[in-house]
Fold this protein.
Amino acid sequence: MIRAEGVTKIFGSAPETALPLLEAGKGKSEIQAETGQVVGVHDVSFSVEPGEVFVIMGLSGSGKSTLIRCINRLFEPTAGHIFFQHPDEGEIDITGLSDERLRMLRKHHMSMVFQNFALFPHRSVLDNVAYGLEVQGKARDERHRHAQEMLEMVGLGDWGKAYPSELSGGMQQRVGLARGLATDASVLLMDEPFSALDPLIKVNMQQELKKIQQQLGRTILFITHDLDEAMRIGDHIAIMEEGKIIQLGTPEEILVNPRTEYVARFVEHADPTG
């Protein structure tokens, strides 16, 4: 469904000056000191199968949020390719799409759920959920009907006429999830969507996501800094450090066989019963 090959993202006015230094094996801090360029992601490759939850995790500054924004080209990759299995066209290279085709991809095939909910305060809950369908040009009755179905799915069927300010943080995040689901996009990108929630609400949302995933079978790329969360919801987990993926595997593989000291420190405190 999604395949990344050698994706690199360098921030700065002259990113090409950093590429040979990366190839020479220099680290992020050295490259920034020498060139003033900031390495966000370096030579990342992975593939995501249809219908799986693929979790990208790491600490702040590891490159995980930069990477997910390269997937839908909110950030333009400096190097590498990102491929998407289009339902009508077969495998396409997202990095080579025109602006118009990229907009169509985002409208119909790739939704995003943000950490800060990003709800429109002046729109009702129902109209927030229906926003992506409005962008797609769907008729008002059709988008409201489908948005209501998504609200029912996330347990907010009676809240369509309310406004975001009337909802708790957990409820607002459910609205954000419903909005991401409403467009029927085959890929859902989720950037630390539950990190601002209280621990109990966070676990409830993780369980809700797993239940919805079983019903709808969407392909999900999920960003987190919480290994317990990754273990709880992920079919595969990619752990990032310094802009690189340092281990990729199933939750069980990572728990039983951490390949680096960095991963071992995460696993040491993980909850294996997740």
